[in-house]
Amino acid sequence: MVREPLLVLSLVWSSLVVASTSAAATPNGFAEKIQPFIEAHCVGCHGPDSQKAGLRLDTLSPDLNDQGASTQWTHVYDKLLSGEMPPKNRPRPSQQDAQGVVEFLRGQLHTASLQQQQMNGRVVVRRLNGTEYQNTLQDLLGTRVPLKEMLPEDNSAFGFDNVSKVLDLSSTHLLRYQEAAGAAITSVVPIHPPIPFSDRRTGLEMSKKGPNFQQTLGRSCKLQGEALIVYSKLPRYGLCSTGFAPTAGRYRVKMSVCAVGGEGKPIPVGLMTVEQSGRESPVLKDVREIPHCKPQVIELEFDLQRRQAFVVNLLTTWDSREFKKPIDEYTGPGLLVEWMSMEGPIDAFPPPSYNTLFAGVPLKARSVVKAEAERARVPTIAPDRSAQSWHSDPLEPASSDPRKDADRLIRDFLPRAFRRPVNKEVADFYVGRVLRKLDEKYSFYDAMQYGYKLALCSPDSLFLIDSPANTPDASGRLTSTLLDDYSLAQRLSYFLCSTSPDSELLAAATRNELSRPAVLHAQVERLLNSPGAARFTKNFAGQWLDLRKIDATIPDPKLFPDFDALLLWSMPLETEKFFEEVLRKDLSLLEFVESDWSMINQRLAEVYGIPGVSGAAFQKVKLPPGSHRGGVMTQASVLKVTADGTRTSPVLRGRWVLERIVGKPPAPPPPDVPAIEPDIRGATTIRQQLDKHRNTPACASCHIHIDPPGFALETFDPIGNWRDFYRVTVKSNRGNVQLKNLNGRPVYRGLDVETGGVTPDGKVFGGIDDYKKILLNDKDQLARNLAQKLLVYSTGAEIQFADREVVEKIVASVRARNYGFRSLIHEVVQSRVFLNK
């Protein structure tokens, strides 16, 4: 029997509750092994009179099938293993007693965790997050319509937004997913036949058509005959742009341009789009280097939405408005634009996306479809009909045999939408729902939209429901949690490409070959070498290293006048290209901590003080001795996302390093303890202020771990510059900061930066170079951290106790291969954790 999709959704969520319940069980030997140890060494801090960190052990349930109790006992195990419990200022148990308790807890926690996984699997069900749903529908339908902005923002857990535990489904979620599905479906149906659009304007014409453009002429730009020469970034109210696209599509843009002035060098320019409303700032899409020569024609193709225009603009910090002489005497670098043109749309008609849903069905004006259905007089559609008229009477699919076409199209669509074969009963259900709408006098187009939306918002499409290869037994328990090949295909594809499996993956699943290690290895290689792997960089590295937050803060222009749009554009690209280089060449994951190279362009080289790098294009550059760069921690992107735009904080950066690189995040304060602000009167430096925290008992246990990596990075400012002192805007006797392109805005020297520190285990370091060496002393922990993050991201579930032995096997394997990052991904995919439900 086929159930209604909404009913199935409720049943899916009900299964979560059922799967989480089990009979209470106290491990054999608990009373003899654990309770005496707890009473002797732990209840003084975690008993009836005191519950430090909110933990009470004398009454903690020994039932390890209880999620809360298991979490607490895991915490106890970790503290005992690290030697942090009991604290060093309290009587210590013998090594033999402590080791016995640790071994007993390890065995019992592992057994309980593994039993839970064998009964229910690690991940029962997971909703596609906004990014995955957008990618899935765009790839499935061949549409470019943005959908993620229509969906509620996803929560994150354990560093990622694809973790099942926080991907809930409210009525609002379901409504928004339906709206997004509807937008995707309608986007594949063109509103009208191609209406050729062509716009060409000279620099002079641009200056006349741009609103308030006259305010910039003579200050940041000038006219030279029909050409426009731009010397500074143009404001929103006067842009060097094409006309606005009358309809969405792909357009061919041409411009006759060259660089002028300066030192005869090329100039980087931003390629942007802007909305006709004028309320939004232009959106940077790419950067192109314009050569210094005679004007030459550059041709581009751009996807534009209706009422969007293409814009070319400078991205630099310099400002010719500070030039006090006539603009004709200015000799600095600039961009000369003779003319710009745009024509299109250049897409095929009907677009390929139309055939993904309506192959073989002709397009007709809605008025024609209605007249034919009512057997009325069919209106004549003029061949030169205007776009406005078409928007009032758009095209729509017009079937001559609606029931037959509906049956054919729905049955063809469902396996693609559900990412696996669909049996006749399920297909009959969806076809029947569409036929019922036709019986209710819905138009063919409306009935098909209903059917497609129903499928795209069904559990089979909206959720990743991992199916085991073997069916459950009579009691409903799993006989094996090994994934079937179709579930494995979708897990692999969403891991590496953030979208549904392609035809080759599904074909391997159909042949039941994907689960073979050699075939799985080959498919991982294929996907990592495919264009889709760029999404792995964007979504995994973007969250692991917080690159998604690159626009969250705007550096204070008074303190950092050397920050500009070109630097902002370059920052995340360096880290992404660095990540991709390590992955592509199977370089050691230790390169993320320390490397003698990076992927930079001229703008970043200027910030890093690296000579000999020119152009906006990124290139692999060997770092000079003493550069203090190498690895991701000292890249400008990371240094920006770990600052607030004005100041740096050793606490923020220290916590980031512990969470993202080391894999030993500091414990959050107990929920019933408010944030403590020590009295920092008299403290003039950051180190003095944090010493006040370190001397406060409630703060010391965390700050002893957080502060060292934070101070190791304190010699870098919020935009990635190396510094020996802080910048301030108040004049002092320390003098000015000597920077290029300050445009007359002075920045002054503040206090000197305090460097160095001591790690919790007593290792002294003088700066970031020394601290990196300390981190590299424990290579296994760096690999362990990254293996855990890859397992969380790839499966959508947190690391459970039974997973720890899998992590250790992965670490041991990659250790023998110089900790290769690509090898690590292969080990993750071949692991028990990845291959099972």
Task: Tell me what you see in this structure.
- The protein is 41% helix and 12% strand.
- The two termini are 25 Å apart.
- Among the domains are: 5-120, no CATH class; 197-344, Jelly Rolls (Sandwich); 544-776, no CATH class; 785-835, no CATH class.
- It has 31 helices and 19 strands.
- It has 837 residues and is an alpha+beta fold.
- It is flat.
- Strands 2, 3, 4, 5, 8 and 10 form a 6-stranded antiparallel beta sheet that branches. A 3-stranded antiparallel beta sheet has the order 7-6-9, with no helix packed on it.
Distance between the termini: 25 Å
* SS elements, strand count: 19
- Unreliable segments (pLDDT under 50, ≥5 consecutive)? 6-24, 672-683
Radius of gyration: 31 Å
Proportion in helices: 40-55%
Structural class of the helix and strand makeup? alpha+beta
Report the principal-axis shape: flat
Major sheet description: 6 strands, antiparallel
Q: Count of helical segments?
A: 31
Mean pLDDT: 89
User: What quaternary form is this?
Assistant: single chain
- The percentage of residues in β strands lies in 5-15%
